[in-house]
Design brief:
- The structure is a single chain.
- The chain is an alpha+beta fold and about 90 residues long.
- The protein has a single domain, classed as Lrp/AsnC effector binding domain/regulation of amino acid metabolism (RAM) domain (Alpha-Beta Plaits).
- Helix content is about 30%, strand content about 30%.
- The chain contains three helices and four strands, in the order βαββαβα.
- It is globular.
- The N and C termini lie far apart (about 35 Å).
- The model has no long low-confidence stretch (mean pLDDT about 90).
């Protein structure tokens, strides 16, 4: 499974509509409205790189109101449990 984080800039007046449209795209599992330098963050989970290109280039970028995207491809995922175990390595009780 390939996971990507897509940072989305959108026209300010259309952010809610953009978020809803991006949520409806197959492969997009979550969309967050955020503070900071971008307006929305979408989590994309697909099986192959070609699918990712289809989701981002052929779908997200073509949603009316999207002005720019930046895609970050995840190498490895860490959960809070994984992080607790990593920080505990080498520590004796």
């Amino acid at each position: 499974m390939l996971t990507a984080i897509v940072l989305i800039d959108a026209e300010t007046a259309r952010i809610p509509e953009v978020a809803e449209a991006v949520t409806d795209i197959p492969g997009v599992t979550e969309v967050f409205s955020v503070t900071g330098k971008v307006d929305l963050v979408a989590i994309v989970r697909v099986h192959e790189h070609e699918e990712l290109a289809g989701v981002v280039s052929d779908a997200v970028n073509k949603v009316p109101g999207v002005t720019r995207t930046e895609t970050l491809i995840a190498f490895r995922a860490y959960s809070s449990k994984d992080l607790e175990q990593a920080f505990a390595l080498g520590l004796d009780d």
